[in-house]
Amino acid sequence: MALTLRAEWLNYRIMSTTRAALLRRLIRLTQTMVQGGLSATTRTCGNPSCRCHQGERHGPHLYLTFRSPEGRSSALYIPRAAEAEVRRALQAWAAFWETGVALSHLNRQALRQRLRTGRQHAAKGKR
Fold this sequence. Notes:
The protein is of the alpha+beta class. It has 2 helices and 3 strands; from the N terminus they run H-E-E-E-H. It has one domain (28-126). A hairpin with a 5-residue loop joins strand 2 and strand 3 (73-78). The chain is elongated, with a radius of gyration of 26 Å.
């Protein structure tokens, strides 16, 4: 019995430490994260005598694609000078997602432990 309680306490301590570190990471990631995708497109212009109408299109131009709050597909032009910043923001989003999944796993473990402990207490009360 004492060994089980000690193991549960250690598990709780590890999970609490890990949880706190993950929450700190989430807060840090929210400072720069951007959800979306980066796409490169080429275009033809309106000048019929331009080289782009003979197959040598303008671009590639970068766009951040995303869903607006209303659910519509949207795009934001990204100048080449800002490409690295946008890529870092997209990487922060991916890390934010992974961190959320890790927190969900810890929450599920804690819930499982609480449910197990509740069943043990309920079973002892029936005796």
